[in-house]
Design goal:
With 205 residues, the protein is α/β, with parallel strands linked by helices. The chain has eight helices and five strands; from the N terminus they run ααβαβαβαβαβαα. The chain has a five-stranded parallel sheet with strand order 3-2-1-4-5. Bound molecules: S-adenosylmethionine. It holds the Pfam family Methyltransf_31.
């Protein structure tokens, strides 16, 4: 006999994410093995002000806090933004103070606390979040623009064109065969470098 019960914290929130499930099943996403190259590219410095778009449960955001010296009076600041209540709750429990729930596609939702230093951030960083922003990828780029100071950098990682194409194709085929609209269940935005470059250039990057 097997008795198993799903933990209440494993139940996804209204955004579809559960921090505890994410930490159990996908910690590789924020592991050093996967994130060293992008952190190197970001090249954060002590005293810098950085926003982490789609910060999740805050593991990388906390790493960045250490680098900029956010808790050592260097003037450095890292702000985490995520549209999952569960993720932000866990990020706070993990020790991330500056973080809040908002949709990065909608900069108008950002709280006033961020509005003050708008156009004043050295960098916007993001890891494994932009491919979830299928509804309005350009909205994300516009949000980045509202935050960066002149010369600021936008450094991020997202799944690219044809990512997981085998699994996604199979999903489409099976759903179509059963009479469902398969386009609504593929939630990802996986652009080619050319496509994403075009969007960036059109928004002034
Ligand atoms: C795979 S997790 C990555 C989390 C974190 N960046 C990391 O490296 O561990 C993707 C995150 O993006 C967030 N996300 C997806 N769409 C978002 C949106 N429109 N606005 C803000 N956050 C979003 C999810 O809630 C989730 O926490």
């Amino acid at each position: 006999m097997v008795a198993a019960q799903i933990s209440t914290t494993d139940v996804p929130d209204s955004s579809g994410w559960s921090a505890s499930l994410y930490n159990k099943n996908a910690s590789f996403v924020y592991s050093a093995a996967f994130t060293t190259p992008i952190l190197k590219l970001l090249d954060a410095k002590p005293g810098e002000k950085i926003v982490d778009f789609g910060c999740g449960s805050g593991e990388l955001t906390l790493e960045l806090e250490k680098i900029v010296g956010a808790k050592s009076g260097s003037g450095g600041l890292v702000v985490g933004v995520d549209n999952s209540e569960s993720m932000i709750r866990t990020a706070k429990e993990n020790g991330l103070n500056s973080c809040f729930v908002a949709d990065i596609q909608q900069s108008l939702e950002f709280p006033k606390v961020m509005a003050v230093p708008r156009n004043n951030y050295d960098a916007v960083f993001t890891n494994a979040a932009l491919h979830w922003c299928k509804k309005d990828p350009v909205g994300v780029i516009r949000s980045v623009k509202t935050l960066l100071k002149p010369g600021g950098r936008f450094v991020g990682e997202l799944g690219g064109f044809m990512n997981c194409v085998g699994v996604r194709s199979a999903l489409h085929v099976v759903l179509k065969r059963r009479g469902h609209d398969s386009t609504t269940v593929d939630p990802w935005f996986f652009p080619s470098p050319e496509h994403y470059s075009k969007l960036l250039i059109e928004q002034g990057f």
